[in-house]
Amino acid sequence: MDKPTKKLRLGILLSGGGRTMVNIAEQIRTGQLNAEIALVVSSRNDAGGVEKARRLGCEPVIIRTKDYPDTNEFSNRIAAVLEEAKVELVLQCGWLCWWKIPPHYQDKVMNIHPALLPGFGGKGMWGHHVHEAVLAAGCKVSGCTVHFVTDEYDRGPIIVQRCCVVTEEDTADSLAARVFEQECLAYPQAIRLFAEGKLAVQEGRVSIKK
User: Fold this and answer.
1) What residues form DSSP beta bridges with 112?
2) One fold for both 1-105 and 111-210?
3) Looking at the domain that runs over 1-105, which CATH code has it been given?
4) Catalytic residue set
5) CA-CA distance, 96 to 173, in Å (whole number)?
6) pTM of the predicted model, to two decimals?
7) Distance CA 173, CA 169 (A)
8) Nearest 5°: phi and psi at 139?
């Protein structure tokens, strides 16, 4: 009988309700991801994801920007808890804080953005701000993008994108719900590709090995 492969140790960074984390946990529970949530970090002690993490059996670490004198100290604290938990892949799940990613975590930090990058990205483009911008531009298609995180907002190498139709009747809420359905598929797909060693980054582009 084949030995089970080692579970990928995930670190979750969140600032909000934590529904992306819950989706990943469900993928793990049902055997669709060979991984474990080793650490949850919240940038707010009152974020909805804090209680959700506890219900998943993971006491979150609270790391708030205002508790540190500068970005370096804030970033160093995040790196320290990730290393202590032996995290192999970091997932930003509604994480709204900028942090300096240490060199040894390059191409090991992912984010999911609720639009098709490079469009509708950058500072201030998160949540409903994105969907409102997509609707205002008259786009006929939207979707989500999983990418590796760099020190530039929403500019890291793209791993997976999934699309959905934008209808004439859409509001920011209805479009957000349809995009989130695609997010629930795209993020686990990207994690699986990473776990299987199928992602290679060269010159700012991700290639997927067969």
Assistant:
1) 146
2) yes
3) 3.40.50.170
4) 113
5) 20
6) 0.94
7) 11
8) -60, 145
